[in-house]
Design brief:
elongated, 25% helix, seven-stranded parallel beta sheet, 693 residues, TIM Barrel, 28% strand, alpha+beta
Length: 693
């Protein structure tokens, strides 16, 4: 078989002709994208955004020649006037002369008073930061608000603070990684630091906007770089005075964003600045923010930013850098069960070269129901700005194909599919056994292969089996070869010097026209139908029919003309499209358009059974794969074959294929499906459900 490296190298060359912009988000949910000001070389970061009563948007960020060590850093702002498409020229919002000003947060209290919170970084160290605020009721002009009051917020956590830290560390899972026997453990160092009145009083920093509870209480999220965890400041008088909560304790939970549950509990989502693996931290308060549970890590990867917003329809929106190696990806998640499951994901930013930085977002919902996002946008030293993106959440929370077909919402529906039936006697034996035993419900035959006839003879005795055509345009093995069903003179581009199909997909793409490809795949479908039955589906051997936009167009056209469903993946989700681009497939705008116009059922995702160094490892890797899948309809392909000396002579992957002949007969696997609530389907059921729509 063609090596994965050679396939990806070739397809990367195709992608290079598409252009870097193809790795960008193409989401239909985006209403508008605007830079607040032109690219410039000063450091701009930490934006906040607020919707004013007159329909304007007001934004703030910090800007200067650096961050905490640059004394010229000040807080800047801009307006987007109601009905305008462009932000005003930036204006000064706050500047403590000779001291860096960072992390601005804008907020309107329930009386309509505007607050600007920020930090002045005393002595150029984060842990010495002073929490500041100013307020205004005169903010409807064209430039900066007219500030009417300014003060510091000075917090003095009492001895309960240190006791809470010690108690909550006991609730955390034990972790001594990275600490020498002669050095104090991380936990002990933080517990000791929390006993120091000065250390627990200074250095509390802003990042995320406050929330207002039903009783009017305001909770201002704060974090400490010195203690490396968080807390909230509490105000019960509309922001006039403030006092500290008990700390939100964990190993590195910082920059909390707060979500209010319907039962009155408050959930804090936090950036991970602690031990591996890097995941979003969560904590719960059941007493209006006074105290918090020890943090736990959820399943969302996290490198930097987090934000959360409870929407008017009850859904929750989460925004963050959901990767572990940079800030080049920013994703928006939606949940309809208060964060228990994040069913929808939308890619907001992504740079395939990993050089971009998109972080520190602010997320609000405006009265029109749209999501307004601002975040730091950087493509290099002289390409820095703040970006404003408007999202329609209704266009994100779309149904999966599993839901469209009538399967239960939120469920993982798997189409377990046997590839390569007909290739050799060993593949036939394993496929027939699986189907006869009712363990696998879908398979496809390679019509040009030497043992296709024997498999079709068996198929005649099993008219209810879900059998399709594995459209074959390559012949990958060294000595075990096959060629087209069509005469070579009619499809010369598909035939190599030996009169067989080419070994590898790149060779096919370089030599064969779309017309030749269409001629051959029609011949393979027609030969199957000559047996007196219709294939239940068609798919593509080695992904060849996804090797170029022209091949994709032919593949989908043939499927629709025969009205036989193809294994087409819904590429309208940028995360799915990005995954296949990363794998090396030329997922261009043209391909996405072809798939979007396809009128038969689609898959939400597509993958294959992973390899393993032993059967147990292979099974464990398969379980890990399934657990990582999102809800929806996913086809998982595998290639079972009986392990014989003949199979060993054909392919070096014989051991993986032999293990795959065991995998789905394994009762442990079937118990796993049951425990995970997995639904198993096949193409026959999919088309029956589709026809009923």
């Amino acid at each position: 078989m063609m090596s994965k490296f050679r396939l990806i190298t070739f397809l990367f060359l195709i992608l290079a002709t598409v252009g870097k912009s193809q790795t960008k988000n193409a989401s239909k949910a985006i209403v508008s994208e605007t830079f607040m000001f032109p690219f410039q070389n000063e450091h701009v970061h930490g934006s906040s955004i607020v919707a004013l009563p007159n329909g304007d948007l007001l934004s703030a960020w910090f800007q200067g020649s650096g961050e905490r060590t640059a004394d010229d850093v000040r807080v800047m702002g801009a307006r987007l006037k109601k009905g305008s498409k462009a932000w005003t020229a930036p204006f000064l919002m706050a500047d403590t002369k000779g001291i860096p000003d960072c992390n601005p947060v804008l907020f309107l209290n329930r009386k309509g008073k505007l607050f600007l919170f920020w930090i002045a970084v005393q002595a150029n160290e984060w842990e010495n930061s002073i929490l500041r605020f100013r307020t205004s009721t005169n903010y409807s002009g064209n430039e900066a608000p007219v500030w009417e009051w300014q003060d510091n917020i000075l917090l003095k956590p009492d001895d309960r603070f240190a006791k809470e830290v010690a108690a909550k560390f006991k609730d955390l899972p034990e972790n001594n990684a990275g600490w020498a026997a002669y050095a104090p453990s991380y936990d002990n160092m933080i517990k000791e630091a929390s006993k120091n009145l000065l250390k627990r009083s200074l250095g509390w920093m802003t990042r995320i906007h406050p929330v207002t509870l039903e009783n009017g209480r305001i909770l201002l999220p704060l974090y400490s770089d010195g203690l490396n965890f968080s807390m909230v400041a509490i105000s019960d008088d509309d922001g006039t005075t403030w006092r500290p909560s008990l700390p939100i304790v964990g190993r590195g939970p910082i920059q909390p964003a707060l979500a209010l549950k319907k039962n009155g509990n408050i959930v804090a989502y936090m950036r991970d600045s602690g031990d591996a693996p890097a995941r979003v931290h969560t904590s719960i308060s059941t007493d209006n923010g006074e105290s918090w549970s020890a943090t736990q890590k959820n399943e969302i990867p996290n490198e930097a930013s987090v934000e959360i917003c409870v929407l008017k329809d009850g859904k929750w929106a989460f925004l963050g850098n959901d990767i572990n190696d940079g800030r080049y990806q920013l994703s928006l998640y939606l949940s309809d069960d208060e964060g228990a499951n994040w069913k929808w994901k939308e890619l907001i930013e992504y740079e395939s070269d990993k050089k971009g930085s998109f972080s520190y977002p602010c997320l609000i919902q405006t009265p029109d129901g749209l999501l307004n996002i601002s975040y730091s946008y950087s493509l290099g030293d002289e390409k820095k700005t703040i970006k404003h993106v408007v999202i329609d959440p209704e266009k994100i929370a779309k149904k999966t194909w599993a839901e469209k077909l009538g399967f239960q919402a939120g469920k993982k529906v798997l189409l377990l599919h046997i590839d390569d039936a007909g290739m050799c006697p060993e593949a036939n034996e394993a496929t027939e056994k699986y189907i006869e035993n009712g363990q696998i419900g879908s398979a496809a035959v390679m019509m040009p292969c030497p043992n296709a006839k024997e498999f079709l003879d068996w198929a005649k005795k099993h008219p209810d089996a879900d059998l399709g055509v594995h459209l074959t345009l390559t012949s990958e093995w060294k000595t075990y070869r096959w060629g087209p069903l069509t005469k070579a003179s009619k499809v010369p581009g598909l035939v190599d010097p030996d009169g067989k199909f080419y070994h590898e997909v790149p060779e096919v793409v370089m030599h064969a026209s779309a017309k030749e490809v269409e001629t051959e795949i029609r011949a393979q479908i027609d030969k199957f139908m000559a047996t007196g039955r219709r294939p239940t589906h068609i798919d593509t051997h080695m992904g060849t029919l996804y090797g170029s936009p022209e091949y994709v167009k032919v593949f989908l056209k043939v499927a629709e003309e025969y009205r036989i469903p193809a294994n087409v993946i819904d590429l309208s989700n940028p995360l799915v499209a990005g995954y296949f681009r990363k794998a090396g497939y030329p997922i261009t705008d043209e391909v996405i358009s072809h798939v979007g116009e396809y009128r038969l059922p689609k898959l939400d995702n597509f993958t294959s059974v992973p390899e393993g160094k032993s059967y147990d490892e292979k099974r464990a890797n398969f379980f890990k794969l399934v657990k990582s899948l999102n809800a929806g309809l996913t086809e998982i392909i595998f290639h079972p074959a009986t392990g014989t000396e003949n199979l060993k002579s054909i392919t070096g992957s014989w051991q993986q294929r032999a293990w795959e002949a065991e995998l789905f007969a394994d009762p442990v696997v079937h118990q796993f499906f049951k425990d995970e609530g997995i639904i198993i389907t096949n193409w026959i059921e999919i088309m029956k459900r589709f026809e009923k729509k």
